[in-house]
Amino acid sequence: VESAEDTRAKSQMSLATVIKGVGFGGAGAHLCHALSYAISCLVKDYNLEGYPNDSPIIPHGLSVIITAPAVFSEIGYVLPQRCIHLSQLLGAKTGGVGGT
């Protein structure tokens, strides 16, 4: 929003935030994303190959995925099949859990 006076733009941004929140919550992605911001903002000296080296950065997707195992272990009882499937996509050996 370029101008604080632009109520239409502010309204549209608010609506987008609500829609995103509903989508993330329903998908079970809310915790990974929320935790990722703490990781990203604390980086002081990490530079990922392929990114500019002028300032430290942990890409958002990487910081999201770093939190996934801890989040899955906490919410697994609520969304077991989804957490098992996502863990397998990340390369985890689930040892037959969930019929896989």
Report on this model:
The chain is an all-alpha fold and 100 residues long. The chain contains four helices and no strands. The protein has helices at residues 7-27, 30-42, 60-75, 80-89. Helix 2 packs across helix 3 and helix 3 (60-75) packs across helix 4. The protein starts with 6 loop residues before the first helix and ends in an 11-residue tail after the last helix.
> Could you give the distance between the termini?
47 Å
Q: Evaluate the radius of gyration.
A: 18 Å
Overall structural class, as computed from helix and strand content, comes to mainly alpha
Unreliable stretches (pLDDT < 50, length at least 5) are none
The geometry reads as flat
Number of alpha- plus pi-helical segments? 4
Helix content: 55-70%
In short:
This protein is an all-alpha fold.
What characteristics describe this protein?
single chain; 100 residues; 4 helices; mainly alpha
